[in-house]
Structures are given as C-alpha cells and as structure tokens.
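Need residues for this backbone.
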C-alpha cells in the first residue's frame, strides 16, 4: 500500500483499508499540524457564510477543484446532491450563518444511471427484510429515483427553484446552481 502523497496535493495516492493501522498512522501525521477550532468564539461564531451542496461521489472535491481554503466553506453531500433530502441540514447551516448555497451537480452523476425500479429490486434482493424499504414514505409510493430523462441543467434548476421557493429560506440567502463537467474538470453557472 502506497503511503506517498500525491505531488502538489494534500491527499495520498491511495486510501488505506478501513479500519487499519495505516489509517491511524495517517491520522497521527495529520494531527501533528492540527489547529484547534472549538467553542463559541473560535468556531461557531465564525461559521462559514458559504456552503456547497453536492454529490457524495468521490470524484467531486470542492475544496481542491475550486481552490477553497480549509474552514471557509461548508460542504453538504448526499446521493446526487438532491436538496429535498437535505433540507434539515440546509436549515441548520442557514441558522448558523450560511447565506449562500452553491449547488453543484456533476455531469457523470450516478443519478443518470439509477432508476426507481432497479433501486427497489436491488434492496429487496439484499436487505435483511425485503419489505422494509416499502415502509419508508419516500420509497413506498414512488418509483422516482435518479434523474430520469432530465438534463443536468434541468436537475440543477429544479433544486435551485426548490430552495428559492421554500418559505424556510431566508430572504437574504442566495441560491446559485452550477455544473461540474467530469470530462474537463471545469464548472459553469446555470442559475
């Protein structure tokens, strides 16, 4: 297992097994330069005013891909970066001081390759209780999963509009929508 840092990057070439001694060793090395940021004055009163909502895909690295500094932007992730599933986290971030949510979707997202019927079929075949998924409201009445025939721009615009129209989003909060192109590594604004 290679423990070498990638040239010019802050990450390793490969990930260690989880859990493993190598993982603990890497953490110990990181802890050597750890800067304490705890408590009301040093952390919570300085909560980032910007947040990025994006996919959990491991190819999406907002800090690296956008040149962001540590601790100045909150990163909120889930499958496909869909905001409807993140509303509690978004509201908490807003309560703490976030006033700009930047939604970033990426062009090769798994949402283009996932369908409700295939998703449900997979879980029913592997879950401890094949009927458990049906007890969740989000899955019992709908076969909606993934993006369907929508374009990436339509997916971004749908989530942007959802937040902009939400009565829970503060008047002074900005919502913007972006597309990260997995082929070029560049982003572009669509909303």
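Answer:
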């Amino acid at each position: 297992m290679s423990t070498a840092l990638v040239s010019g990057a802050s990450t390793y070439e490969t990930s260690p097994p989880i859990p493993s001694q190598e993982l603990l060793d890497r953490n110990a090395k990181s802890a050597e330069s750890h800067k304490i940021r705890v408590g009301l004055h040093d952390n919570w009163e300085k909560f980032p005013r910007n947040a990025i909502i994006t996919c959990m895909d491991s190819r999406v690295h907002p800090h690296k891909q956008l040149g962001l500094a540590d601790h100045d932007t909150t990163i909120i992730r889930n499958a496909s970066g869909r905001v409807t599933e993140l509303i509690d986290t978004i509201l908490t971030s807003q309560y703490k001081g976030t006033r700009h949510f930047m939604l970033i979707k990426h062009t090769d997202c798994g949402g283009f390759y996932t369908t409700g019927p295939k998703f449900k079929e997979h879980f029913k075949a592997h879950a401890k209780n094949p009927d458990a998924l049906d007890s969740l409201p989000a899955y019992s009445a709908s076969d909606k999963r993934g993006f369907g025939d929508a374009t990436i721009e339509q997916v971004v615009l749908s989530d942007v509009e959802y937040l902009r129209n939400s009565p829970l989003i503060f008047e002074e909060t900005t919502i913007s929508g972006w597309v990260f192109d997995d082929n070029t590594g560049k982003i572009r604004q669509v909303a």
